[in-house]
TrEMBL record:
The chain crosses the membrane at residues 25-45, 57-75, 82-100, 106-127, 134-152, 172-193, 222-242, 278-297, 303-324. InterPro entries: ABC_transp_permease. Coiled coil: none annotated. This is ABC transporter permease.
Length: 332
């Protein structure tokens, strides 16, 4: 009897290990990449490991982390949102315009509500209009940037509101306010994604939408809700960016969607839908943050940074579609 149990333990332990690696391959691989880059830049530059530099990196990457949380929900449902960068620009511009009225709280509420409304319109056109999210948000990407440039005539609007400026520049317990906001958003997104019925519906929408629909769930509302989330998150990112710079620029968030999608895919979320990781997306965003910071500290030409990020996105998609499926099969 004892020998039988002993034999069973020997047989099942490797299988369990493979299963664990298969389920968490995305998070494990991006964590390994993050650690390698962290150690490399720590050894290559004297400034990288300083507390001041790390605190600044955490603040700069906060908008990407925040939007990557919502984008994880969107991509897990099998959709994509290409309009987040333009929503950041429009939100920054409108925040500056509305802040001129003198009431920072009203400007903040109106800006966040506008972002949520834009996201819900994207979602309604996709879910109820039966249009592909790629097409809808690609059109929104162009149109919203045009609106931002039109209402500002291309100029930035200074922001000096004592209510709004601390959102991007305030500090608490050694960390800037955007970092604390990002930490709260990550915790909230992790809980909703992993421990609520809505989170399970999001994964099921991407993996087997027809079965979910037959069980009585309106998947169109799920699809619309997650695109509303990215609209709200992008507006929040626009508020943080504008308040950090004390200026609402319509050009804020240019190419931001590429950075967010790269972070999410790096973290192991499948572009085909049905599989996502909140922690993976957060670590993916942090990896992009220290990569950009480390390359700047090494005095690499800034024009190389988006090139490197684009190459990383291609490699991530390759790993995502090839290696993950292999580990999943071996672990199952």
């Amino acid at each position: 009897m004892t020998n039988a149990h002993h034999t069973e333990a020997i047989v099942t332990k490797p299988a369990r290990s493979k299963g664990f690696i298969g389920r968490h391959f995305g998070v494990l691989s991006i964590t390994l990449v993050f650690l390698i880059l962290f150690i490399f830049f720590s050894a290559a530059t004297d400034v990288f490991l300083s507390a001041e530099n790390l605190v600044n990196v955490a603040r700069q990457i906060a908008p990407t982390v925040i939007v990557a949380m919502a984008m994880t929900f969107v991509i897990t449902t099998g959709q994509i949102d290409l309009s987040v960068g333009s929503i950041v620009g429009l939100s920054a511009a409108t925040l500056g315009i509305w802040a001129v009225s003198g009431n920072g709280l009203v400007a903040l509420v109106l800006t966040l509500a506008m972002g949520l409304a834009v996201g819900l319109v994207n979602g309604a056109l996709t879910a109820f209009g039966r249009m592909q999210s790629f097409i809808v948000t690609l059109a929104a990407l162009t149109a919203l940037r045009g609106v931002a440039l039109f209402i500002t005539e291309g100029y930035s609007t200074p922001i000096d509101s004592p209510f709004l400026v601390p959102i991007g520049q305030g500090k608490f317990l050694g960390l800037y306010t955007p970092t604390w906001i990002a930490i709260v958003i990550v915790a909230l997104a992790w809980y909703v994604f992993n421990h609520t019925r809505f989170g399970r519906y999001v994964t099921a929408t991407g993996s087997n939408a027809e079965s979910l629909r037959r069980s009585g769930v309106d998947i169109r509302k799920i699809q619309m809700a997650v695109l509303g989330m990215t609209g709200f998150a992008a507006a929040l990112a626009g508020v943080i960016t504008a308040s950090r710079l004390s200026s609402g620029s319509p050009n804020s968030g240019t190419m931001f969607e590429l950075e967010v999608i790269t972070a999410v895919v790096l973290g192991g979320t499948s572009l085909m839908g049905g599989r996502g990781s909140i922690m993976g997306s957060a670590i993916g965003a942090l990896t992009l943050g220290i990569l950009s910071n480390g390359l700047v500290l090494l005095k690499v030409d800034v024009y190389w940074i988006p090139i490197v990020q684009g190459l990383i996105l291609v490699i991530a998609i390759l790993v995502n579609t090839r290696l993950f499926s292999r580990f999943s099969r071996s672990g199952s």
